[in-house]
Automatic annotation (TrEMBL), chain B:
Protein name as catalogued: ABC transporter permease
GO annotations of cellular component type: plasma membrane
Domain of life the protein comes from: Bacteria
Membrane-spanning residues: 12-39, 51-69, 76-96, 102-122, 129-152, 172-193, 223-244, 256-274, 281-302
Cellular compartments annotated: Cell membrane
GO terms of molecular function: transmembrane transporter activity
Principal location class: membrane
Membrane topology, from the record: Multi-pass membrane protein
InterPro entries the record matches: ABC_transp_permease
Pfam family of the protein (one): BPD_transp_2
Species assigned in the record: Agromyces agglutinans
Assigned keywords, A-Z: Cell membrane, Membrane, Transmembrane, Transmembrane helix
Claim: Isomerase is one of the keywords in the record: no
Length: 562, 348
């Protein structure tokens, strides 16, 4: 590792920011060197985003000094910070899908001639930038036609055009697959060589260790320390982030493993709580059979876009199945709405917790009682006292922070929002709980808590369908695992000492199509892909008419109504 | 002290109430007897009573509009529904042999209200079932509704001579204007119905995040039907009061531009047009601000042709005060104040 040049490009000293009632940052020091990838680590609510927003001028600071390349600066807005060379690419790509790649890259600073936009130079400049990053993207193609990963790279191209000295990447990899991450890392490395200081924020420890030279750890708004990645062990890092020993997860693993055998024993005698036969929805998921017994955790493993979420949405009544049968609790059911599913005590917790989960301008209490209240009907309000009890008990049980039932959910961190959402579903006492990526984008502490919760719920007889992109997590929690590939279930395995490698092989095994058939963001390559036994009609209509757009495309028109 | 002040400023009702007080002050200067309320012939009289009485129709519609707006919707057809209900009532009263009979009036009012329910269901159908954007969906009835009213009145201004009907608009009950009593009842019913049940929370939930609400099992469609129907019902009540006050149904002018006043009242009251959290109390203040404004124009002696400009200025002021940018600036100001206060305490 090259020694960074002695003068930091960014130096923040003693930064404090206070919000009403909360000290978001408390005397934090932070620095970045040119030509270095730096990671900001910490749990949700540690102050990472606040620090980034202080650096990019979104928030004003209450105390402290920020220097950029030796000069003290004080930004009053993101535009100023950008002009000074600090560019940010956010988790949600803030670009315009209906414009071309070139237009997106140059938007707002198109070269002009005689007062009008010089389109030829615009396109040429965009092409140069893409070339500089070694990206083979047609500048004249529509941005929306590309996968999220490409869009993210375009966002980076746009960011570095502003002569960025500092590039901030906030959770850039949270919805990318391995190949796309590799591509992103290649771009990051080449920028690094050009002397750009890169701030890389991610929850994936593997990635942090792969790409970062230096780490700064925050906890509860305070600085824990700054470390060289090479010099800190993972286990130490995790401890510094959460500030306590992390043995809970190991224990959990032991317990889960030992209980597998027990559930297997029951399997024969207990009828399944939910049982699907040939359930399918055209363009979303091929006919599948699935049984979930009481007290059983069934994991779904597969790549993004393999049909995990689509399957879960059918069981949760979010989308309607167009063929097959579903038996819930011994009764054949056709779920037409989520409401009917909830009525049968089946709860689906969406992977998109912001857009489909929490109602962010309502309070924690309202969010927790929402499903229960909707189920009771509006004319039978839950008494205020009961609401308070419910909220308090779940806040305690799930350790929701801040522990204030009147706080607006909007102001909670991602992990706490997820817990509020979980509390909502637990409040209706479901028999089958479908958790779609409940641990995505949340910190390790909250993750462990949610995993423990899943485990104890199942122990008390609840059926759980658990979806996660992290195979380790699926393996740790599930009694049985259904593997999905290309929108069908390709294996249904009892988790009897299954190994990650075995699962990976099943997930990836596309009959020589090792890449898994293109990026996960464009599932419409079904006919041309590896599946030979696909239904005769094209499984997904081309273009944007797909009934259920990939839930990960964050450039969703949020107003979309069904 | 400053904490209390900060909380006051943060309240959504702060600026609307300030606005109302400022208007009162202007009136008081121009007309010292502004606050005087006297009893003449057993009825309450005074400028404030006039404001309440004349503001009643706007308030009634604004209450319905508040709930519609809370669901991310808007109802442009309320003015037209006013005209229709007035036209229906008047034509029934005119067509009856005994216009002064209380039963006749009761039938007329009931039929007018029943028709408004149908109109509301129509709006609800367009929005909730067909998924048409509310502004477009209700625009249909806004334009078509005037035509329907015109058909009912056959293009005439229907003047009725029916004391019981007239009482709805200009009568008194125990000294209080009947229109004010009706408005109070509508307001109370809406408040109790939404805040004493879970209706209010569910409406807000749908307004903030329709898809999340659907997945949580909220019957969004039913709620939309309910709010549009209620809004049309409110509009019909307001239409009856307006028509009764004039003792005439005018298909072209009854309730004209009232939808804008109602939306304005809601917005001044701090309910966001983006839907979500709403405040009926805010709407009440908003409606009073609008009506006081109109009164002020007369007491201060502003020429009637300048009325619209004056109104626009006030609206602009309120909107500026409520804009996110202003709020952010104020929040920053508050934070610095609090910090300074905190430092002061630390130093001492």
């Amino acid at each position: 590792m090259t020694q960074p040049s002695p003068a930091p490009v960014v130096e923040m000293r003693g930064i404090s920011i206070e919000f009403p009632g909360v000290k978001a940052l408390d005397g934090v020091d932070f620095r970045m060197f040119p030509g270095e990838v730096h990671s900001l680590m910490g749990e949700n609510g540690a102050g990472k985003s606040t620090l980034i927003k202080a650096l990019t001028g979104v928030y004003g600071i209450d105390a402290g000094v920020i220097t950029l390349a030796g000069d003290e600066v004080s930004f009053t807005g993101p535009a100023q910070a950008q002009a000074a060379g600090i560019s940010t690419v956010y988790q949600e790509v803030n670009l315009l899908p209906n414009l071309t790649v070139a237009e997106n890259i140059m938007l707002g600073r198109e070269p002009r001639r005689f007062g009008v936009v010089d389109w030829r130079r615009t396109r040429r400049r965009a092409a140069e930038l893409l070339e500089g990053l070694n990206l083979e993207i047609d500048p004249n193609s529509l941005l929306g036609d590309h996968s999220l990963a490409i869009q993210q790279l375009v966002a980076i191209a746009r960011a570095i055009d502003v002569q960025a000295k500092v590039l901030i990447l906030d959770e850039p990899t949270s919805s990318l697959d391995a190949d796309e991450v590799a591509e992103l890392f290649r771009v990051i490395r080449s920028l690094k060589e050009q002397g750009v200081a890169i701030l890389f924020v991610s929850h994936f420890l593997d990635q942090v260790y792969e790409i970062c030279d230096r780490l700064t750890v925050l906890r509860n708004g305070k600085l824990v320390g700054e470390y060289l990645t090479d010099e800190i062990l993972r286990i130490d890092l995790v401890q510094k982030m959460i500030g306590k020993e992390l043995t809970a997860l190991d224990e959990l693993e032991q317990r889960a493993r030992s209980s597998v055998a027990a559930v297997e024993g029951q399997d024969v005698s207990d009828p399944a709580f939910a049982s699907a036969r040939g359930l399918a929805r055209r363009g979303a998921i091929a006919p599948f059979d699935l049984d979930i017994a009481p007290g059983e955790v069934v994991g779904l493993a597969g790549l993004l876009g393999s049909g995990r979420t689509e399957l879960a949405r059918l069981l949760g009544g979010i989308d309607r199945a167009d063929q097959g049968t579903l038996v819930i609790d011994g009764r054949q059911t056709k779920l037409r709405t989520p409401r009917q599913a909830i009525n049968r005590r089946v709860a689906y917790s969406s992977e998109n917790r912001r857009s489909e989960g929490v109602v962010d301008e309502l309070t924690v209490r309202d969010n927790i009682v929402l499903a229960l209240q909707a189920d009771r009907g509006w004319f039978r309000p839950i008494p205020k006292k009961r609401q308070e009890e419910l909220a308090q008990s779940y806040i305690q049980a799930l350790n929701i922070r801040p522990a204030n039932p009147d706080a607006l959910v909007r102001n909670l961190s991602g992990g706490n929002q997820q817990k509020v959402l979980l509390a909502r579903w637990l409040a209706i006492a479901p028999h089958l709980l479908i958790l779609d990526e409940p641990t995505r984008g949340i910190d390790i502490g909250a993750k462990a808590e949610i995993q423990k919760l899943v485990y104890s719920l199942a122990e008390n007889g609840m059926s759980v369908l658990f979806i996660s992109a992290e195979l380790e997590e699926v393996l740790r929690l599930s009694h049985r695992i259904a593997v999905l590939r290309d929108r069908r279930i390709v294996a249904d395995l009892v988790n009897d000492d299954l190994q990650v490698e075995a699962l990976l092989a099943l997930i990836a095994d596309g009959g020589g199509d090792g890449d898994g058939g293109g990026g996960p963001e464009d599932p419409d390559d079904g006919p041309g892909g590896a599946t030979t036994d696909a239904p005769p009609e094209p499984s997904v209509p081309p273009g944007g008419t797909e009934p259920d757009p990939t839930p990960d495309s964050t450039i969703d028109l949020s107003g979309a109504r069904r | 002290m400053s904490a209390v002040f900060a909380r006051l400023i943060a309240s959504r009702l702060f600026w609307p109430i300030v606005m109302l007080l400022v208007l009162f002050a202007i009136n008081l200067i121009a007309f010292p007897g502004f606050f005087a309320i006297t009893i003449k012939d057993g009825h309450l009289f005074g400028s404030l009573i006039d404001i309440l009485r004349n503001g009643a129709p706007t308030l009634i519609i604004a209450v319905g509009m508040t709930l519609v707006i809370a669901t991310r919707g808007i109802d442009l057809s309320v003015g037209a529904v006013c005209a229709i209900s007035g036209a229906v009532a008047c034509s029934i009263i005119l067509g009856s042999p005994d216009p002064a009979n209380g039963a006749t009036v009761a039938v007329a009012v009931t039929v007018a209200l029943a028709i408004s329910l149908v109109l509301g269901v129509w709006n609800g159908f367009l929005v909730a079932v067909l998924g048409i954007q509310p502004i477009i969906a209700t625009l249909i009835l806004m334009t078509a509704g005037r035509g329907m009213a015109m058909l009912i009145t056959e293009g005439q201004i229907l003047t009725v001579n029916s004391p019981p009907f007239k009482a709805m608009g200009s009568g008194f009950w125990f000294g209080v204007p009947i229109a004010v009593i009706i408005a109070a009842v509508v307001f109370a019913v809406a408040a109790l119905l939404t805040r004493r049940t879970a209706l209010g929370m569910l409406i807000e939930s749908v307004g903030i995040n329709p898809e999340a609400s659907r997945q949580a099992g909220v019957r969004a469609r039913g709620l939309l039907f309910a709010v549009y129907t209620f809004c049309a019902f409110c509009a019909a009540i307001a239409g009856l009061i307006l028509t009764a006050n004039q003792t005439a149904a005018d298909a072209n002018n009854t309730g004209l531009f009232l939808e804008l006043d109602a939306i304005l009242a809601v917005v001044i009251g701090g309910t966001s047009l983006a839907g979500g959290r709403y405040s009926l109390a805010g709407t009440l203040v908003g409606a009073l601000v609008i009506q006081t404004l109109v009164t002020t124009v007369y007491t201060v002696g502003i020429p009637p042709i300048a009325t619209m400009v004056f109104k626009a200025a006030v609206v602009a002021a309120v909107c500026l005060l409520q804009s996110p940018t202003t709020n952010q600036a104020l929040a920053g100001f508050r934070r610095r104040l609090a910090l300074r206060a905190g430092k002061g305490i630390a130093a001492s």
